[in-house]
From TrEMBL:
Its EC number is 2.4.1.-. This is Hexosyltransferase. It comes from Dicentrarchus labrax (European seabass). The gene is b3gnt5a. Its main location: Golgi. One of its GO terms (cellular component) is Golgi membrane. It comes from the Eukaryota.
Length: 399
């Protein structure tokens, strides 16, 4: 047999060129591959095969180490800093003091995380799903709404914005503000504010909800859901419910605002946590998170991740609810409104959505066998087909 050496050399050259081209592509696109593929493979392996986060209690315990705070000064870890209240309403939930006044029975303490300049968003919430009078008169439920804020980060605008906030609070009495810069990297400080304020001034609340100011909450559906939980034999205990992220990897891309360096969090996977846009915890879990914030280092500036760290350290696991949205916006349709709890991304259409979602005729679409079948088909079309992205999961269509 005769071998064609020229052909062999040509094949080897093609292989070398192909290999070189692939390596070049991998090198150029490595950051994207690492972020979208490799990091997720590592995190899922850690989460589902190892599934041990024993390091949390030791590695995140408060130490005497100092960290740079965002205001540019060197200070202790934020959980060791008692930020002064600039605006506070200790009597929002009633009280139990020397005057003999008893605590009010509060079904839900609702904390909305808001930026100081977002007056229009706060007003829209007061006029719609956060309206305490509506919830009491129409649903017979006691809800307390407060907005959690820091101070405006721009020193030149701070005085003007603060003056406007004081006027706003004088009119509505629902702002809770501490003296820290209201920035993305201080969201964990804002989370700590919520649980500390709740523990101090509203410990009797059956539930605590944390939500962004661009969230829509279908309050009638939420109140119904919470009451069903309270009516169970065990009552509502050990509850942390929302849109759950499982086995999420830390973002290592330096350009991302969610970037977490290895020296801050060296492990390949976060503990399970709910999206910070909107979640609910029972009163006993709120107390556990409060105590966790006293002993755990809050240098993780992604608040929902820090919440997951606190909960894991306290033995609390998040529960998935298909009608709590994460980063997504719910489709606009009566068959969706019939079940929705939260929807994200509503900075400008809260009033119109509230009017549509709470219209008395909404439930008529799903009544009876044919109505239920129709709405199931509609939800399948909206939630299970690929052209709808980043909304409720397909499972919600059959719930």
């Amino acid at each position: 047999m005769f071998m064609n050496f020229r052909r062999i050399h040509k094949c080897q050259c093609v292989q070398l060129l192909t290999t070189g081209l692939i390596l070049c592509v991998v090198m150029v696109c490595w950051e994207e591959l690492d972020h979208h593929v490799v990091s997720h493979m590592r995190s899922y392996t850690y989460r589902y095969l190892v599934n041990s986060y024993d390091f949390l209690n030791s590695s995140f315990a408060i130490t005497s180490n100092h960290h740079n705070r965002e205001d540019g000064s060197d200070g202790e870890d934020s959980e060791l800093v008692n930020y002064a209240y600039l605006i506070n309403h200790p009597g929002k939930c009633g009280g139990a003091g020397a005057d003999g006044k008893s605590w009010d029975d509060v079904l839900l303490l609702l904390f909305v995380k808001s930026s100081p300049e977002n007056f229009e968003r706060r007003q829209a919430i007061r006029d719609t799903w956060g309206n305490e009078s509506f919830v009491w008169s129409k649903l017979g439920a006691s809800v307390r709404l407060v907005f959690a804020l820091g101070v405006h980060p721009d020193a030149e605008q701070r005085s003007r914005v603060q003056s406007a906030l004081l006027q706003e609070d004088q009119a509505y009495g629902d702002l809770i503000q501490q003296n820290f810069l209201d920035t993305f990297h201080n969201l964990t400080t804002k989370l700590i504010l919520q649980f500390h304020w709740g523990h101090e001034y509203c410990p009797q609340a059956h539930f605590l909800m944390s939500a962004d100011d661009d969230i829509f909450v279908h309050m009638p559906n939420l109140v119904k859901y919470l009451r069903e939980l309270l009516s169970t034999k065990t009552g509502a205990r050990n509850l942390w419910v929302g849109h759950v992220h499982r086995g999420a990897p830390p973002v290592r891309r330096k350009k991302s605002k969610y970037h977490v360096p290895d020296d801050l969090y060296p492990w390949p996977s976060y503990p399970d946590y709910t999206a910070g846009a909107g979640y609910v915890v029972s009163g006993d879990v709120a107390a556990k998170i409060y105590h966790a914030t006293l002993v755990l280092n809050s240098s993780i500036y992604i608040d929902d991740v820090f919440m997951g760290i606190c909960a894991k350290a306290m033995g609390v696991s998040p529960q998935e609810h298909v009608y709590f949205s994460g980063e997504g916006k719910a489709p606009y349709h009566p068959c969706i409104y019939d079940h929705m709890i939260t929807s994200h991304g509503h900075a400008k259409d809260v009033r119109s959505l509230w009017q549509a979602a709470t219209d008395p005729t909404v439930h008529s679409h799903s009544r009876g066998f044919m109505g239920s079948l129709y709405c199931t088909a509609v939800r399948v079309m909206m939630l299970c087909l690929p052209y709808y992205q980043n909304t409720y999961s397909c499972m919600a269509a059959f719930t």
